[in-house]
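Dear support,

I submitted the protein below through the web form. The confirmation email said the job was done, but the results page showed an empty box. After a refresh the structure appeared. I'm attaching both so you can tell me whether what I see now is the final result or a partial one.
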Amino acid sequence: MNYFCCPIKTTKTNNEKLQFLIRMGTFYNNAVCDIYMGKGAGAKLMQDIRNAKKNVKIVSPYLSPFLIKELIFLHSRGINIKLITSDEIEDFYGYEKNIHKLIIQNKHVDQKAKETRDNLESLSGTLLFAMIGLAVVLFPLMYLLKDLKYGLGFIIVVLIFFARDSVVKKIRNTKVYHYTYKQLFPFKVFVSPNNNGNSFNKTFIHSKIYVIDDEIAYLGSLNFTGSGVKENHETRIRTTDINAVQKIIEEVKDLFFNSNLAERDIQFWGSQLYDEPGN
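What the results page shows now:
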């Protein structure tokens, strides 16, 4: 499945986009922080995330399925989650799809179409009964009375067969169900410039930002992936500096709500990820 062709959302004019890109960015000086460099840079991060009491905000262009499960578990505990990622998600084309777990399919019944289909199915059953019944009557008549003129009755059987076949096709083409999609918790999937060559905005969200309970913030190189959290040599800065954390929260909020970067449309994307039986 090629998801690179799915619709993207854009609303602002090119001039408004340019103004955002000019001001896009945050600078804060003299923050008090801890610095870590090396393997296992995500150990403390994961500990803080798992101990979250109110909310978790994550910006990471790449995700691993088992870490998505961590967020789903936090959500089930009532923790508010906000996630920003890209459409170059790790393992996206693998067996276990990340975003699939975060998109909920809602199935809706078209009652009028259902009534039409039920009537067609009833008609199909009546025609089948008539076709079989007439054939059962004609065969003994031809055999017992030795009169081939009763064979002309099979013309009616054939006509009933074609009429029923037409009804069956209408049944198959009558779509009783339609589908909509919603997010398990708020997230954005921004389009990579590599997948949207005609986009005015060439910005790739490459930042890795983690905010826990609006009190702890992490910055660095580690993605929200197994390799980033455990295996790779990564850099990680952790701060509880009130002013620094607030600046980081504002940046994440602006990126989530006001960036106007091209993003994947959840309705189209959901239709690609899920089966949608018509009736």
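Response: this is the final, complete result; the empty box was a page-load delay. The first strand starts at residue 8 and ends at 9.
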